[in-house]
Design brief:
Blueprint lengths: L12 H13 L3 H15 L5 H20 L8 H17 L1 H4 L98 H6 L12 H10 L10 H14 L12 H38 L17 H13 L10 H13 L1
Helix pairs in contact: 1-2, 1-3, 2-3, 3-4, 4-9
Length: 352
Amino acid sequence: MQPNTVHTSSVDVETLVSAIKTLFFRRLYKRCADQCVRNLTAYGHELHPAYKMFLLYFAGISNDCYARSMYSRSPLIPSALDEAEAFFTQARDLICEARVAQHHSFLPQPHDYLSDDSDDGSSSRSLHRSRHSEDITSRPSTAATSVSAYSTNTDILFYDWAEESEAKAVVSPLNVRKHHARPETSSKLPSTESTSFVWQSATSLDAATTSRPSPRLASFYLLRFPPSEPPSEPAPRIERVEHMLAEEDVPFPDEDECFHEPDHVEIYNSQLLTFSDMLTNHIASVRRFREQMKFTNSLTFVAAGRDGTGKRTMSIQERAERIMRGRERNWARPRFDSRRYQELCEVAEAEL
């Protein structure tokens, strides 16, 4: 398909991102960089700036890792480092273009996120990590961390498609990952007739303990304190507890039901700033590595009378004279003569 006939709906972003990550994690750095350049050439004018930054970032980090994996005197290192720095700089220049100041057409409407929690296939997949999702530092490091002192984890902007279901859906870079309760944990607190946890809460009312325990904590108390008959006293306090639970025994609203676009925009823009700092660290590391390679190569000293191979050169006349002297002595080496060393020792003893 020609680039000018490609539309946004025809660009399979999920497959594109997965292919790039697969090449990089298999340490096929040169192929990964070339694939990123081809995707930018073919789909660059149709992709969102965030996806352009993704491709430029992986093109830069692939060239960086490729240069660091070479022999220290390889003539390809300078060109690979120059390309890596250029890709990182282009990705950093797209930060301002990728920022969202107001409602963007790429952002889905809030009603698009309203879905049944039981429908796993209809759950939206995200490009970002939520505040409630797992920490990015808990994920395994990439191949680039073995050769660099800085992080190369791009999950702050782009979520790993392989961890989600295979159902295809329209994905927004402003969509924060949904937080679903586990099916084995109840989203409602147990009633007064089914658990003795209510009596534990009743004793803490005087301490102004009005915070609602989590479903996992409620399940824990169900295991520790099996259901039992409620005591007969104190009756007034029991009524107060039942009244309190009647008002609060309501499941928490789904994160998608309280979707707020300004909050998502704020999270997205803050992650862009973090990504910009990471790109700056990459550029500084590439420059330091370039200077280190220049210093290492400058230590090589080639003495006079030697060529670039490190071997001593001889003229035709010198080679002919050496052959002639060898033939005269029948290629026999002279025996060791210790008399001159004895003379040196006598001179040294006389000076003492």
